[in-house]
Amino acid sequence: MGKIEEQKFIPVEVMKKMGVSGPYSVPLTITTDAQGNVISVELTPNQDLSDDTAYLELVQVAKNIVWNVGNIGVEKATTVLVSFEFSLQ
Question: Is 10's pLDDT higher than 70?
């Protein structure tokens, strides 16, 4: 999971849209194959999908981070929950 932590960032254009909003938590369910390759990234079921444009963009940013990492370093097929915390500081 360290690979994902290293990739977390908030694009400047999204930060500008957020203004004073947030913090945002984006809980993703990540499924891998037996070699640790990411095969599925979804917003955790039952998560309210806000109509807030910034939130929707952060969901996509979080998904892209996971896909860009590609392999999370596990040695068996697994499903994990990773919560991305986005906020302005």
Answer: no
